[in-house]
């Protein structure tokens, strides 16, 4: 019969330590700390010595360099748009510092994210906050910065645009956000309670086939998006600047990366044991999740690129206006990609946790 | 020829601990076994977690969660087991250690180090 432990850490202290441990490792690490408990001081010291390693380990496991580079580029584009449209000058040191800080925060938040999908209320709140921030920024540029320069947006016939953002922007973001939460995802029908090795093999094969198809379709869409942006650029007579050429090269290289690494390798599940198969499945799910995140950041790139190209080919207040639209597009795209990736990540962590608890059942 | 994944000294210790502990290999016991193997060196529990994570990523070990127990405040243990590639890597390391031991023994006529000058 199982006995109650003689010593247990104070619940408050335990809850505090639990908040410092990334959710993916919480169950095992908190259990180990509980088992090793002798006194509150010993508990805190052991936890303090373990947490940095656990954190570093989780960051290493979740960090994907290509995705991080794209995320940093999107953040830098967003912040440079804000700086330029508000102050009409760009200090590179400030831009680098703000981008680096954003990346550190994003990475840490990602590690501390649990496997619970976002609730509708939280999703709506996130969308409202982002929409309000975007509208406030747009109003500041239009009313304060441009008006102070005696520039009136009516010259472009676009004065109604902020109103469109207010009227439709917020509900659209909320609707999109909600669709991501309730949208179907592969493996949602995974019955974890009654799974045998054969079932796992089937799930794995099905997952690989879906991933291959999705990667092919998404690669084609990226190529199409790049081609459309190229045609618009050419028709509008916008030439590629040095930075623009670099951005186009990054986009092309990213598609190449996706073509090379996108298709999952064909495994040989029949020769693997249950644990090996499960590990291979979990790792492939993680790889595909990272590829999805990568594609997510690449998706809106042509549109953002076109808007920035238009901004840098105009001058004065017109440039400020274009920069504002480019920045707004980047903010909205970054918000949608981040939320989509966050929910996908939660689903992935949920499935991985379930798989971790699976026992091999006799098949047939 | 099949490629064997190279492992560092601490990774060898972790693999050895998992091998000797068998079905009872999880965070606390692995840490205790490593402390025993690495004497007189002290080893941080966090370093063990990080290495286990790395070894799992290298596919040298596999892990699973046990049923929750009261002895752990209602939490599960993360158990570890050597994979075939892990056994091969450990075997290769042990062979290398054996060759080092033999070379040292041959030169010093025993494993007790004596200053040569």
The CATH homology group name of chain B: Winged helix-like DNA-binding domain superfamily/Winged helix DNA-binding domain
Terminal CA distance of chain B reads: 44 Å
Shape of chain B: globular
Into how many domains do the coordinates of chain B divide?
1
Order of helices and strands of chain A: HHHHHHHHHHHH
Domain count of chain A: the total is: 2
- DSSP E strands of chain B, number: 2
Helix content of chain B: 40-55%
Instruction: Give me the count of strands of chain A.
Output: 0
What is the average per-residue confidence, as pLDDT of chain A, rounded to a whole number?
A: 77
Which structural class should the secondary elements of chain B be placed in?
mainly alpha
The CATH class assignment of chain B is Mainly Alpha
- Give the name of the CATH architecture of chain B: Orthogonal Bundle
Runs of chain A in which pLDDT lies below 50 for 5 or more consecutive residues are none
Mean pLDDT of chain B: 87
CATH topology of chain B: Arc Repressor Mutant, subunit A
Q: Which overall shape of chain A is indicated by the principal axes computed on the Cα atoms?
A: globular
* Main structural class of chain A: mainly alpha
Summarize the largest interface: chains and residue counts. Answer: A-B, 38 and 31 residues
Task: Summarize the structure in words.
The complex is a heterodimer of chains A (364) and B (117). Chain A contains twelve helices and no strands. Chain A has 364 residues and is mainly α. Chain A is globular. Chain A has two domains: 44 residues, no CATH class; 283 residues, no CATH class. In chain A, α4 runs parallel beside α10, α4 packs antiparallel against α12 and α6 runs antiparallel to α7. Chain B is mostly helical. Chain B has a single domain, classed as Arc Repressor Mutant, subunit A. Chain B is 53% helix and 9% strand. Chain B is built from four helices and two strands; from the N terminus they run αααββα. Chain B has a two-stranded antiparallel ribbon. In chain B, α1 packs across α2 and α1 packs across α4. The longest helix of chain B has 25 residues. Chain B is globular and about 55 Å long. The N and C termini of chain B lie far apart (44 Å). At the A-B interface, α2, α3 and α10 of A face α2, α3 and β1 of B.
């Amino acid at each position: 019969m199982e006995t109650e432990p003689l010593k247990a850490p104070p619940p408050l202290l335990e809850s505090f330590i639990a908040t410092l441990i990334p959710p993916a490792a919480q169950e095992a690490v908190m259990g180990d700390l509980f088992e090793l408990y002798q006194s509150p001081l010993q508990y805190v010291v052991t936890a303090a010595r373990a947490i940095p390693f656990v954190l570093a380990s989780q960051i290493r496991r979740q960090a994907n360099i290509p995705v991080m580079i794209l995320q940093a580029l999107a953040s830098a584009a967003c912040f440079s748009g804000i700086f330029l449209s508000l102050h009409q000058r760009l200090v590179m040191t400030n831009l680098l510092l703000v981008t680096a800080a954003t990346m550190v925060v994003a990475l840490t938040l990602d590690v501390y994210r649990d496997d619970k999908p976002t609730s509708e209320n939280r999703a709506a709140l996130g969308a409202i906050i982002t929409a309000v921030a975007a509208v406030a920024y747009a109003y500041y540029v239009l009313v304060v910065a441009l008006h102070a320069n005696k520039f009136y947006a009516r010259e472009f016939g676009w004065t109604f645009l902020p109103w469109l953002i207010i009227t439709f922007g917020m509900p659209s973001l909320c609707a999109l956000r909600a669709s991501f939460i309730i949208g179907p995802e592969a493996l949602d029908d995974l019955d974890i309670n009654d799974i045998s090795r054969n079932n796992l093999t089937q799930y794995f094969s099905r997952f690989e086939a879906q991933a291959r198809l999705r990667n092919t379709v998404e690669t084609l869409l990226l190529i199409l998006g790049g081609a459309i942006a190229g045609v618009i650029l050419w028709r509008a007579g916008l030439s590629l600047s040095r930075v623009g050429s670099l951005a186009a090269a990054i986009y092309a290289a990213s598609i190449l990366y996706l073509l090379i690494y996108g298709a999952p390798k064909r495994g040989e599940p029949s020769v693997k044991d249950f644990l090996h198969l499960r590990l291979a499945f979990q790792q492939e799910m993680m790889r595909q999740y990272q590829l999805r995140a990568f594609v997510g950041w690449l998706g809106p790139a042509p549109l953002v690129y076109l808007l920035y190209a238009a901004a840098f080919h105009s001058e004065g207040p017109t440039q400020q206006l274009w920069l504002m639209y480019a920045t707004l597009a980047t903010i909205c795209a970054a918000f949608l990609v981040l939320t989509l990736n966050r929910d996908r990540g939660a689903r992935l962590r949920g499935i991985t946790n379930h798989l971790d608890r699976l026992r091999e059942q006799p098949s047939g | 020829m099949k490629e064997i994944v190279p492992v560092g000294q601490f990774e060898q210790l972790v693999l050895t601990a998992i091998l000797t502990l068998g079905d009872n290999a999880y965070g606390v016991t692995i840490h205790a076994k490593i402390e025993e193997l690495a004497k007189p060196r002290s080893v941080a529990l966090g370093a063990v977690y990080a290495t286990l994570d790395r070894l799992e990523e290298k596919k040298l070990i596999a892990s699973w969660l046990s049923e929750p127990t009261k002895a752990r405040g209602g939490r599960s243990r993360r158990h570890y087991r050597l994979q075939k590639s892990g056994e091969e890597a450990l075997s290769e390391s042990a062979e290398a250690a054996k060759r080092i031991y033999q070379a040292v023994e041959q030169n010093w006529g025993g494993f007790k180090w004596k200053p040569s000058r």
